[in-house]
Design a protein that fits this description.
Layout (H helix, E strand, L loop, with lengths): L1 H22 L7 E6 L15 H8 L7 E6 L2 H9 L5 E2 L10 E18 L14 E5 L7 H7 L3 E5 L2 H9 L5 E5 H10 L7 E3 L5 E10 L5 H10 L16
Parallel strand pairs: 1-2, 1-3, 5-6, 5-7
Antiparallel strand pairs: 3-9, 4-7, 4-8, 4-9
Helix pairs in contact: 5-6
Length: about 250
């Protein structure tokens, strides 16, 4: 009887150690939210994978104990959340990045921001701005290249989606739409308009990596950065090139 009791006690100890090893709470969150906003095809709540940028990020954590949760916000709410530092991951950029903000590109390609108009036979440089109306997403701040448009004599018309901007272009209510080719073509196809009838400017006004921002003030940031590094994603070493001109 004594040996049986000892054996039972030993079994209980082993079970306890097994449970402690495998079911003890982790030092990092089981789910981490990333701030996102509608900018298809990169980010969209209307597709199962939430867009190609979110899908790329989520896949980087597939074989980790952490899942990524998309939190779609309006541009105003996204800006407010990021500005207050209440975030860990965000596709919405900090307006003034600092040493606590890390940008991790998810694609080799960059976003090229141009002007788009209804196609004409002549080459479209994109520097003909005086008296023109430019449809512009609310998510982009009214400084940098956008300020350059206004200084050159253009009028801005803020829209919530690029589909709205393209619709206004087709109705001749704006002269140009400001965006990148993938997003403009996605919007054009969504409304059933031939992309061949849209012409992009020769000038590229800005180039941005397609990536996610990490807030180093977040307790999970070290784990996030380490996991992204394991998957082959490296932080951008120099953020100065991303700073808009004042």
């Amino acid at each position: 009887m004594h040996s049986q009791a000892v054996q039972n006690f030993s079994n209980h100890i082993l079970l306890y150690l097994f449970a402690a090893l495998f079911f003890a709470p982790c030092s990092y969150a089981q789910s981490i939210s990333v701030i996102a906003l509608e900018y298809p095809p990169y980010l969209t709540e209307k597709e199962p994978e939430y867009g190609i940028a979110y899908d790329k990020l989520a896949q980087a954590f597939t074989h980790s104990p952490v899942s990524i949760n998309a939190q779609f916000l309006s541009p105003a709410r996204a800006h407010n959340r990021v500005d207050k530092g209440q975030w860990c991951l965000s596709f919405f950029p900090p307006i003034s990045p600092n040493k606590d903000h890390v940008l991790v590109p998810l694609f080799k390609e960059t976003i090229e921001l141009k002007l788009f108009r209804l196609a004409e036979p002549e080459v479209f440089l994109g520097n003909e701005l005086s008296g023109k109306v430019v449809a512009q997403l609310r998510m982009q701040m009214p400084k940098g290249v956008v300020k350059e448009f206004v200084d050159a004599g253009a009028t801005l018309l803020l829209v919530d989606t690029l589909e709205q901007g393209v619709n206004l272009l087709l109705k001749n209510r704006v002269d140009y739409v400001y965006g990148d080719m993938n997003a403009i073509y996605y919007a054009t196809e969504k409304i059933g308009f031939p992309t061949a009838l849209i012409q992009d400017s020769a000038l590229v006004f800005r180039r941005f990596p397609i990536g996610v921002w990490v807030n180093k003030q977040c307790k999970d940031s070290n784990f996030v950065l380490a996991q992204l590094k394991r998957q082959g994603y490296r932080p951008l070493s120099d953020l100065n090139a991303l700073m808009p001109k004042s």
